[in-house]
Specification:
It contains 1 helix and 8 strands, in the order αββββββββ. The protein is mostly beta strands. An 8-stranded antiparallel β-barrel has the order 1-2-3-4-5-6-7-8. The protein is globular.
Amino acid sequence: MRHWRCVLALLVVLPLYALDVSGKWKGQIGDSGRDVLFQLKSEGIKVTGSMSGPDGEPRPITEGQLNGDNISMTITSEWQGSPLKLLVKGKVAGDQMNLTMEVEGRDWSREFVLKKAAD
């Protein structure tokens, strides 16, 4: 019985010690080689910040979550004047993130890697 209480306590406490992904993360999206910069701040499991594409315009992260090494973010953007939501999901491994980005409601997705950059 004590063993199960310890396991339950760990399941409750461990998310409070989630990875810290705060800082700048750089990479390139898809075959186009377009540079992208994520500026992130994490507090527990909540992730906030922005993503800037080749135009340098920051786009806010409206929903961001970090569960263990799994990260997910929703980014508000636009394409040719039409609003859209970018859904980003993946894994954090030290100073690298392996991510997939897709557009909500559309048949488009790209895999890419971000590396932690010096602040």
